[in-house]
Amino acid sequence: MRHEWHQKVANCFEYVLNIVMICIGFVIFGFLLREIYNLAHLLITINDMRAHFNEITEATLAVFLFFEFMSLVREYFIKDAHISMESFLYIGVTALIRAILVYHDQTTKTLLLAISISLLVVALTIYRFFREKK
After folding, report:
1. Taking Cα atoms as reference points, which of 98, 103, 73 lies closest to residue 87?
2. What is the Cα–Cα distance from 128 to 134, expressed in whole angstroms?
3. If DSSP states are collapsed to H, E and C, what string results for the chain?
4. What distance lies between CA 19 and its chain's CA centroid?
5. pLDDT tens digit string along 45-99?
6. Domain extent for 89
7. Where in this chain does the entry annotate a coiled-coil region (predicted)?
8. 69 Cβ contact partners less than 8 Å away, ≥ 6 residues apart
């Protein structure tokens, strides 16, 4: 009898979590559409792309980050409420590459970001090596 009560509570929490993930997916999709609009507007209205290279690069990489977050929400539903650590490592690497490309004017900051990317790539390699083979 007691086990059934725990299962009902777990099912309720799973239901709430799925609703929250759907809401997060819609919010991320809205931000993705906004970033695509901003990028298109930036590309159409700017005459000299070299002068606004940082803005264009930042907007482009923001679009890629939102694509990755959308794929993370998709993976949650496809893999039955499971998100692999590999996906989070990929998003971290992408975010750090974005930071290097956009904010590359300080040498020490760029070096620290490059070291951080290297550590994430090493962690990704170790994770892939030791994960269970399916």
Report:
1. 73
2. 12
3. CHHHHHHHHHHHHHHHHHHHHHHHHHHHHHHHHHHHHHHHHHHHHCCCCCCCHHHHHHHHHHHHHHHHHHHHHHHHHHCCCCCCHHHHHHHHHHHHHHHHHHCCCCHHHHHHHHHHHHHHHHHHHHHHHHCCCC
4. 20
5. 887 777 777 788 888 888 888 888 888 888 888 888 778 888 888 888 888 888 8
6. 2-130
7. none
8. 28, 91
Q: Say how far apart CA 12 and CA 38 lie, in whole Å.
A: 39
pTM of the model: 0.70
Give yes or no for a contact between 91 and 111, defined as CB atoms under 8 angstroms apart: no
Contact (Cβ atoms closer than 8 angstroms) between residue 24 and residue 51: no
Tally of domains in the chain: 1
Tell me the one-letter amino acid at 72: L
Of 34, 32, 29, 53, the C-alpha closest to 43 is 53
Residue with tokens 């759907």: 22
